[in-house]
UniProtKB/TrEMBL annotation:
GO biological process: 'de novo' pyrimidine nucleobase biosynthetic process; 'de novo' UMP biosynthetic process
Gene name of the record: pyrF
Matches recorded under Gene3D superfamilies: Aldolase class I
PROSITE patterns tied to this protein: OMPDECASE (PS00156)
Pfam families attached to this UniProt entry: OMPdecase
Binding residues for substrate: 10, 33, 60-69, 117, 179, 188, 208-209
Species this protein is from: Companilactobacillus paralimentarius DSM 13238 = JCM 10415
Family listed: Belongs to the OMP decarboxylase family. Type 1 subfamily.
SMART domains named in the record: OMPdecase (SM00934)
Active-site residues per Swiss-Prot or TrEMBL entry: D60 (for ompdecase activity), K62 (proton donor), K62 (for ompdecase activity), D65 (for ompdecase activity)
Reactions this protein catalyses: orotidine 5'-phosphate + H(+) = UMP + CO2
General function of this protein: Catalyzes the decarboxylation of orotidine 5'-monophosphate (OMP) to uridine 5'-monophosphate (UMP).
The protein, known as: Orotidine 5'-phosphate decarboxylase
GO molecular function: orotidine-5'-phosphate decarboxylase activity
Amino acid sequence: MDKLVIVALDFADDFECINFLNQFPKNQSLFLKIGLEMFCQYGYPFVKRLRERGYNIFLDLKLHDIPNTVKRTCQMIAKWDVQLLTIHASGGAEMIAAAKEGLSGSNTKLLAVTQLTSLGQVELSNELQVSLPSQDYVTRLAKLAFNNGADGVISSALEVPMIKEATSEEFLCVTPGIRPKSAQVGDQKRVATPSQARKLGSDAIVVGRPITQAKDEYNAYVNIEKEWSK
Ligand SMILES: O=c1ccn([C@@H]2O[C@H](COP(=O)(O)O)[C@@H](O)[C@H]2O)c(=O)[nH]1
């Protein structure tokens, strides 16, 4: 996978989203993340529309259900020609393997969310009553994903070196929770700047609000891309 900036298309509606995309030069190759906000409103026709415009698509549905349901859902998504799809690693070994089986015959890579980047150590210990230190919990889920056929994980950039060591250099680490120095952190807890993510070995960064809520969105993308690829 090329080192990529993936833009999270978290917009109120498709009008805002298309206006955003129209700021980019026509030949600009973009990797776009469609999450629950847009998918729940517009579903597969929206995914198809963006694929037809030539964009690469990360479908961030974070599937988490019994293995049979996840497998059958993945069989459907396998026909959509998207590049990346997410499930939750905490769905367990059988669910992860079922998702991979559902995607077989497609080129869609399967990524498993470890610990959401909006959860820090306090939330993990106090709210979820997980007794492991966050980094060990993330690594454990990453190993579970690796051993059951996922192509990579979603984690914070801070955990990438540990994940790669516990799995393989080729196991993809796609990292949201990216905040350039001047950006507001908001609801994210485990954050890194684009250049930190690069140094820590992320394969791709996912960036939403620091781009989509910037005054000059295109310029924000260009600056993040520059910092990331330095
Ligand atoms: O652990 C996770 C998994 C997914 N995300 C998604 O990434 C973007 C981040 O958006 P920002 O505005 O840059 O915070 C968003 O779509 C999340 O759903 C994540 O942040 N953390």
